[in-house]
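pinned: reference chain
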Amino acid sequence: MYAGGGESTLRGNVSEGQGIYKSIDGGKSWTFCGLEDSRHISRIVFDPKNPERVYVAVMGHLFGPNENRGVYKTENGGQSWEKILYSNEQSGAADLVMDPFNPKVLYATTWRVIRTPYSMESGGEGSAIWKSTDAGETWTNISKNKGLPKDTLGMICLAVSTSNSDKIYAMVENKQAGGLYMSTDAGLNWVKQNDESKIRQRAWYFSRLFVDPKQEDIVYVCNVELHKSSDGGKTFQTIHTPHADHHNMWIDPEDGQRMIIADDGGAQISFDGGAHWSTYHNQPTAQFYRVTADNHFPYRILGCQQDNSSVRIMSRTYGGSITQQDWSSSAGFESGHIVADPLNDDIVYGGNYGGYLSRLNHRTGENRTVSVYPVSPIGEGADTLKYRFQWNFPIFFSPHNPKRLYAAGNHLFVSENEGQSWQKISPDLSTNDKKKQAPSGGIITKDNTSEEYYCTIFAAAESPVQKDLLWCGSDDGLIHVSDNAGASWDLVNPRNMPEGMMINCIEPDPFDAQTCYVVGTRYKLDDQTPYVYKTNDLGNTWEEITEGIPSTHFTRCLRADPNHKGTLYCGTEQGLYVSFDAGKQWLPLQLNLPIVPITDLCIKNDDLIVATQGRSFWILDQLNTLHQFRKTDSKDEWKIFQPALSYRMDGYRKSNPDNEGENPYYGSVFYTWLPEWQDSNRATLRIMDESGKEIRVFSTTASEKEDQIKLEKGMNLLQWNHQVKGCEKIDGMVLWNGNIGNYKVPPGNYKASFRINQDNTLLSFRIAKDPNYQIAEADYQSQYEMLTRIRDKFEAVQQTVKQIRKLRTDINNLKDQLKDSYPAELDSLGKDLIKKATQIEERLHQTKAKSGQDVLNYPIRINDKLSGLFDAVNQHTAPTAQSIEAWEDLKLLADQALLDYEKLKSNEVRAYNQMIHAKQIDYLLLR
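pinned: its structure tokens
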């Protein structure tokens, strides 16, 4: 298997690849095999008779001229490569197909496409169709063959019929004569079959086409919709699919009914030719632009995802994982910033392309447009607009005034009435270069969605330390600051900052109003250098702080930790970095995070939330542990770290969730560093209340699985879920209300003792109450005490039932053992003893219940009633008066039955044992 890096749908925010990889074990492992600077690989084909001979279509650098464009070939499975087709430095290889009957015959297309920070131009010299009949040794330009358009060509995609290789289809971008073309003589002559707009709109983005493997006249065209023709492309019908914007397709060469479609939702499979499709809701591939979090508990993460809805999703749940029930679409749509009202989590503001801004009330469902200037600009160049709003324009609330909402176009705007009106509080803070605001798309097909709108504010923020201190950065390289709420602005660009810098992120320092961090990117100028700048004097002077970040990991975002002064987190095109010294030195913080573009970061409480381009959201929990580990004096000594504040809440962490988000670990989490560990070592974690009373013990030698801890060399995680142990289950016992299991301790202060062999460390930590419940900590304490009393009484009842059962068994075993020598008077006494004990047992437990619903016929007894009362008390409330009343009644019944059994043991059981002794029988009943 071969995999090529980089997206081939060449948007402005496209992800670049690092070359081609090979797997010889079905994808279990991969090795790099060259073409490192290819950036965007659009197609891979290989000789079916010789898998070592592979051809690769390379688009090359999207944002600049590049000699590495073209078609490459290897004869040795990727050990070495030869460039076999090259058009020019601005035209890459867009498509590549092979004759199914003759692997020496190849067809390729090259495409001249130029992207700048403010434009996309498709078509021109270098766009062509090529043919080789000698395995790529030589190529012929067949673009001028009879029937094809004679003037400027753009994007061209090809498909060869696998049932008749002389029949070739081509989707051609051309201003006057664009459309679907067909050749029946292997490319010598062509006929235009169809030029409907629906199959060729936005040609640079949609042009792929495919032919049924058995029927040469069945053609599929990928566009916004998926289209199918059964007459060689003369007419097309639209096939319903789960999502729009289709970019690629695979059809089983042995079965044309079996296919996979790739679209902006993900991938879907059909086994009936497209009549039905699988879901795309099982693929964690969301591409997020920005990320924020609200003030809900547990907090929710918000972000807008490429060509899908915006998202509001729980960071943790009261269940075992984060499922589809725990998220919903929110305000805005695909491309914008999104923020929740600081005073009302259910009010969310979200943006989208075209300057669209909406206000969604999640409680009522009302979604209203509150755009700064609600005139849609779609299709226009930026030069004609009153205000220019970028595809991804900033939206944010003031950290000092929760009613103050900002939005940024080429001016900064503010509203204090939920978007009912807006005030312009800045001049144009861009270069306003009209030469860079013309309509985008090139001479063939214009394409204006606002993604290429230029000369706009792309990042903005207000200092969390100083009210009205505002920062704005533009996509054309200007940084402005105002210390008077926008009444006046100063241009404060770093002197050494290259021109054309897109200011992608501005982060005012959370401790010092004079300090601010700015992240810039120039990847749209074919520059992958990371750019991060820091000022300590409101922009009068700057220093560049990128030491430790690789030279090709261009930077996208930065956040300063509000809980740890000087700690910074930086997201780049290829991963995550951290600095503990305000940017002097950066270290990788990748851990298990996929190597993927980090588009934005957000710190909420003590968690770092990561937005990625293609791998959804990730959270690094408990940043405080990272800082404790960093400050550890010696890494050669074992250490247990102070646990973070935790909450008494329901939920758990489901292991290996399937198509679901992972919950964080619940309860109190103890991270332990062990520089060495031997299996012979012994470790114990003891949990105690504030007074030092032991309430739970975990150890490496525990017999029960739930009490075991397993340790290894390195960092270990020990979790206590805030529960004390419940009661032991009795095998085969049927209880309608179930056994009394583990239950939670109340909020409060606790202690933990961690011992390894003879060394011990004592920690103090706190458990807070779930803020969603209006109950005082003292009420939780009362509840816990009552639950413990019920548990203890239930346990006493259960132990008595076990004793009665053992007593019955012992008496019967003695009778069976002695047989005919069993004394009659002992038999009489034993039968009476069993009868009386069974009567007590039947008061304690419903002995007639043998299956789950037998209790509907035979009433439940004391133990089952205690269990039901336990459940009634085990809520987020103080024990109710009626629960206390019920407890007193059940306690009285239980105590009387237990007392009766104690009397039975003191009298009848004692008498039975005395008779055994008198008869000189070697046997003894329980005492």
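why pinned: The radius of gyration is 36 Å. Residues 777-818 form the longest helix (42 residues).
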